[in-house]
Each structure stands twice: as C-alpha cells, then as structure tokens.
Write a structure and sequence with these properties.
By secondary structure, the protein is mostly helical. It has a domain of 67 residues: Serine Threonine Protein Phosphatase 5, Tetratricopeptide repeat, CATH 1.25.40. The protein is built from 15 helices and no strands. Helix 1 packs parallel to helix 3 and helix 9 packs parallel to helix 11. The longest helix is centred in the N-terminal third of the chain and has 29 residues. The radius of gyration is 25 Å and the shape is elongated. The termini are far apart.
C-alpha cells in the first residue's frame, strides 16, 4: 500500500516527534540516575538534552531545576522551575524550591504566595502549613502563623515541627500557658526529642525562673541538643542569661556534643 504524497510530510513529522520524545525520555531517565548518584555535571548535560528534545515535559524541567539547584546555579534553576510550573501547576517540588529561592533573595511576599498556592493544591500536607506558619511568624503575623500550625496539627497531631514551632509562636505572643502545654504535648509525642525540653526551658526563662530553665536545658543537652551558638543567641533566654548554668557549664556541654 502506497501512502498519498500529501500524507507523507505529516508521517515524517510524526516520526520525528516520536523520535524526539523517545530521546527526551531516555535523557531524562539518565539525568535522574546521574543526579541521584551525585554526578551533577553529568545530570545537567543529560537533562538539558532532555529539555531540548521534550520542551513541553514539566517533569524534565523540574529535574533540570533540581540539578541546577544542586550546582548552585540558582538563576538557571529559577527559570527551569518556573517553566515547569507554567506547563503544570501541580509540580510540587518545583514550587517548593522556588519558595527557597525566593527566601534566599529576601522575596518573602513571593514565597508566601507560592506557599499559599501549594497549601491550596495539597491541603492535606502538614509540612506546607508548617513552612507557611514559620514564614508568617518571621514577619510578625503571629495569629495567622498559629492558624497555619493548627491546620498542620489538625491533619497530623503528632507532627513534631508543628508542635515545637507552635509552642515558640505562642510564647512570642505572650501565651505562656498554651505554649507550655504545646511543649509538654511534644514531650509526650517524642519523649527523646531534645526540643521539647528546650521549649520548657524557654517557658521557664519567660517566667524568670532560672533554676527551672537550667534544669530543662540540662535535660535538652542530655537528649542531644548540641548547638551552643543557637542557645546563646536565643532571645527567649534573655531573662535568665546571667544564670550560671546558661553562662557556663551548659553551653560548654552543648558544644561538646556538636
């Protein structure tokens, strides 16, 4: 059977498209393997070829953005992630990395917009609500931040980051009793987590109870708290900063565990 001459160009185009598509899939798979194996430069080469062969594939652009992000080519990563989202608004990883890039550049309103968009698309993801809550808390909107943490805990009642960040936000807002209740809840959920004890140390410091703050901080260090600088800089400990355990032994013990 002979195809009509008018049909032949269409067939040729379809065959070329199929060939490009197959190449794009191969290069994308190769790039993903190289990226997982730590070969960032090899991944970049393969994923650029994949994007050239299949420029309408959002997964390829997201992977290319991942490789560029790993290579610290942040401007290129930003463009790739935006291309992925333009092609498919469901590209969750692309949006999350765009949030990180926006925060890196100090573009908090853009980061907030992206997080709210992600929260609307994945309403059952508590991590997104926690990230949004922390962003809101950083700008001083404690009420909205607390609402975001509450939304996370409504879906994941044992979410440790949500419990801790909620406790700190409540303390910043002067809700000491609720803050203490949140940290005690964290201690019940994760009894070996140092940040439950550390949160209780912050509550004691807020109440200007240095002995209780020292005891809780010692427990946090015993459980693995090891960031001396963070302890020394934490503004919530200012009220008991001159207590002997905070100015000497405990920070040194914490440093020893780093």
């Amino acid at each position: 059977m002979t195809l009509p001459m008018a049909v032949l160009p269409v067939v040729v185009v379809l065959l070329l498209l199929a060939s490009c598509s197959a190449k794009g899939v191969r290069e994308r798979a190769l790039g993903a393997v190289r990226l997982r194996g730590g070969d960032v430069s090899g991944a970049l080469a393969a994923l650029r070829a994949a994007a050239e062969a299949g420029p309408r594939d959002p997964d390829t652009w997201t992977l290319l953005g991942d490789a560029q992000f790993e290579a610290q080519r942040y401007e290129e990563a930003d463009r790739s992630y935006r291309t992925a989202l333009d092609l498919d608004r469901r590209q969750t990883r692309a949006r999350r990395h765009l949030v990180q890039l926006a925060l890196r550049r100090g573009r908090r309103p853009e980061a907030e917009r992206l997080l709210r968009e992600q929260a609307a698309q994945t309403p059952r993801d508590p991590d997104v609500q926690v990230a949004l809550g922390n962003l809101l808390a950083a700008r001083g909107d404690l009420g909205e931040a607390q609402a975001a943490f509450a939304a996370a805990l409504a879906r994941a009642p044992r979410h440790q980051a949500a419990l801790y960040d909620s406790g700190r936000t409540l303390l910043r807002g002067g809700e000491v009793e609720r803050s203490e209740a949140m940290f005690r809840r964290l201690a019940r959920v994760a009894p070996r987590a140092p940040y439950a004890a550390y949160g209780l140390a912050l509550v004691a410091a807020h109440r200007q109870q240095p002995e209780a703050a020292c005891a809780a901080l010692a427990e946090a260090v015993h459980l693995g708290l090891g960031d001396r600088r963070a302890v020394e800089r934490d503004p919530e400990l200012a009220a008991v900063r001159r207590a002997p355990c905070l100015g000497g032994a405990l920070p040194a013990a914490a440093e020893g565990r780093r």
